[in-house]
Amino acid sequence: MSELGPPLREVATHCPYCALQCGTRLAGDRETGVVVRPDDFPVNRGRLCQKGWTAPAVLSATDRLTRPLVRRRDGRLAEASWDVALERVAGELRRIRAEHGPDGVAVFGGGGLTNEKAYLLGKFARLALGTSQIDYNGRFCMSSAAAAGNAAFGVDRGLPFPVTDLQGARTVLLAGANVAETMPPLMQHLDGAELIVMDPRRTASAQRAALHLQPAPGTDLALALGLFHIAAVDGLLDRNYIQDRTRGFEAALRRAMDWWPERVEAVTGIPASDQRAAVHMLARAGGAYVLTGRGVEQHSTGTDTVAGFINLALALGLPGRAGSGYGCLTGQGNGQGGREHGQKADQLPGYRSITDPAARAHVAAVWGVAPQELPGPGRSAYELLDALGGDRGPRALLVFGSNPAVSAPHSTRVTERLAALDLLVVADFVPSETARLADVVLPVTQWAEEEGTLTNLEGRVLRRRARLSPPGQVRSDLQVLHELAVRLGEPASRYPTVPQEVFDELRAASRGGRADYAGISYERLDAGESLHWPCPDTPDPHPGTPRLFLDRFEHPDGRARFAAVDHQGPAEELNPHYPLHATTGRVLAHYQSGAQTRRVAELNDAVPGPFVEMHPDTALRSGVSDAGLARVISARGSMTARVRVDPTMRLDTVFAPFHFPGEGRANLFTHPALDPHSGMPSFKVCAVRVEPVSGVAP
User: Where in this chain does the record put each 4Fe-4S Mo/W bis-MGD-type domain (predicted)?
Assistant: First the structure.
């Protein structure tokens, strides 16, 4: 009898899903199966959510992409060699650039890409393609909070303090965040705090709250202004803090004074007594935090709304003090790092502005080109997708790490624009809905097959480590970008394929920027150091900055800025034809467009298809019944889903998750109205009606 070999070593890495980036350890192989167990990492402390426990199942998805696919003349996708696929892409890119100019080609990235991929993708777009037309799906996630944070504090980092600081909180306001479902391991850090949850639904987080504020969708800013008003009138302002550490208070207060509690109640539906209770809980806590999420950000007024909650935090003296603060709960796995390194239309690496001459000169020097060779800012994500295939829009699109056919608003329009392209190229590891529309599909590595770094919601830079070798003919995104760049005439050395080499170049490009990674190295991370940016390169190794703003904010004068904002209401008001608010969001079992989680049997069994949640009386008035089929209809399109009645829902509001494809896409009815500051679409509110339908489920 043969002896068993030595046990396979475990690999320390991180969960592939949300921005907590829970620590995990992987063991096993493709033959025996990969097994995950939670690590004692600070953000998850030995816990995982259902998605984290089942993450290895995606590694063995039965429809995993392992060979390039090229669309034939008969319209079918067929397997091809890498040379054939890459030559097809490069040849078409050369033709389109010659006929339509560099901006005839566009790139769409993702907030789940590693820092190295995001960095090289931005470099590839601006040098190899020469295009300004690059943006990413993080525009649909974090852009409003980023814009408000930059304006208020001079820098955007989701949490300017470690997650573990929340353990000392006495009161926490979760504004538009349902962390009990979207980030379950985070809840253990909130166990000692009184929770105030602001959400139009009685979510799992709201059920654990001491106080649930349930506003009408699209009225969040009115509530923020009202809470600021109460703080001022009831003598709860931190006057010394306001005088010593802020600017713009008086102008912001004048706007808030127009929002007395009874007026706020008439607009939001939240009783004046609950408004007062919330402010007093925060002001008298002695350790309070205001945390915002997608619920307040995904609006055409999202930047102003986040600014309203920052105003409240500043008025109470919370940011920049140990034991209290303001933070934004970043969503995607690398939602923080993904917006720092140049895959956003208006940014260069290091969170630099692409219109800043000094920033352009610095990055151009690292890249070995003249500053004038770098294109300027391009279209934001929805504007880019909306322009595809048009007379003045890109004729080709390369998609990395995103599924806009499901995740973008006004899905019918986006799908039509994707179909109008001369060339659609998708790099993915499963045949997502966008990949199925592509002319060329390139199979790339997924999380447990690659090395790299990610940056979690605290600004902590983490190492992703490989447990498996890629299957079949799968290549890394870095290899794909390298091969395409060389075929387009770029020097091979300009596009490294080794993640550590890319990261070392990223460090140089970020040096001195808002998000300075210059002092972070693979060696330090692999030695177990916990490094939060900014971490400059100093003679004595810089320890990183886990807590920002303790001494000063990042504006030149060191002061935070209040914003003079006012409530405007949603982009689309209710009317007799569309009498209900519709809002969208996530559920515990699924993630983003569902391209990964819908391939995991346990998760799919938990929530197997789309649903629309509404109050029983709303269902009765709409002529639908629990578990029956209904159509949610807006002026843009309709979604078909099963009805779930819930007596805790507002009578004027329905909810649908956005994880499902086909007729079950919630984004068939969402509104594409954009925030003028951030380019964020209005995912969280639009006007709809609900009607019964007969037939089978989508």
Answer: 8-63
